[in-house]
Amino acid sequence: MTSELRELYQETILDHSRKPRNFGALAEANRTAEGYNPLCGDRARIDLAVEGDVIKDIRFQGAGCSIFTASASMMTEGVKGKTRPQAEALFERFHDLITSDPQQASRRAIPELGKLTVFAGVSEFPVRVKCAALAWHTLKAALAGEKVPVSTEVSESSSGDGGGRAL
Ligand code: ZN
After folding, report:
1. How do 54-63 and 31-37 pair as beta strands?
2. Which residues fall inside 5 Å of ion ligand 1, going by CB?
3. How many CA atoms lie within 13 A of 100 on its CB side?
4. Domain ranges in the chain?
5. Residue 141 — very low, low, confident or very high, per pLDDT cuts 50/70/90?
6. β-sheet with 42-51: strand ranges across
7. How many angstroms does the Cα of residue 88 sit away from the middle of ligand 1?
8. How far apart (Å, rounded) are the C-alpha atoms in residues 10 and 58?
9. What distances in angstroms separate CA 1 from CA 98, 100, 151, one per listed residue?
10. Is the pTM here over 0.90, yes or no?
11. HEC string of the chain?
12. Distance 17 CA to ligand 1 centre (A)
């Protein structure tokens, strides 16, 4: 990754952490889930308005580090208007990005991720991976209608995707 690119990425993350998009409660939400990352203290709440299979609207609340806030903010932008399978596929790609080898991640073009590519650098900081993934795990739980808050430190309950995968 060039230093110019790295700087651009950091600016984008900073911008979203300072001015999170789609922040707040969603009055017309019909799905809600909460998540917690005990390693960092990040807390997330995702409100969804789902119609059929489509995420019509999404908002998030919570408190945490700048990586969590920026990731949640950009996630809401990335999945609004998408179907559940599309949102889950995006999460798979995003998860690959933040957990793969930094050198490879920065070189691999993942057009579907768009702006979310700015999180490629997170793969260099394993502790931050959970900060970046928390909002997504919480989104997945909300889509699945899970009532129990998700935590990055317990194995996921099986939700039809093989379950039990380490975050
Ligand atoms: Zn964090």
Report:
1. unpaired
2. 40, 42, 64-65, 68, 131
3. 16
4. 3-159
5. very high
6. 54-63, 42-51, 31-37, 150-151
7. 22
8. 25
9. 14, 14, 32
10. no
11. CCHHHHHHHHHHHHHHHHCCCCECCCCCCCEEEEEEECCCCEEEEEEEEEECCEEEEEEEEEECCHHHHHHHHHHHHHHCCCEHHHHHHHHHHHHHHHHCCHHHHHHCCCHHHHHHHHHHHHHHCHHHHHHHHHHHHHHHHHHHCCCCCEECCCCCCCCCCCCCCCC
12. 11
* Spatial contact of 129 and 98, defined as CB atoms under 8 Å apart: yes
pLDDT of residue 112: 81
Question: Which amino acid is residue 124, in one-letter code?
Answer: E
Q: What are phi and psi of 122, to 5 degrees?
A: -60, -30
Fold of 3-159: Sufe protein. Chain: A (3.90.1010)
Distance 40 CA to ligand 1 centre (A): 5
Contact (CB, 8 A) for 42 and 68: yes
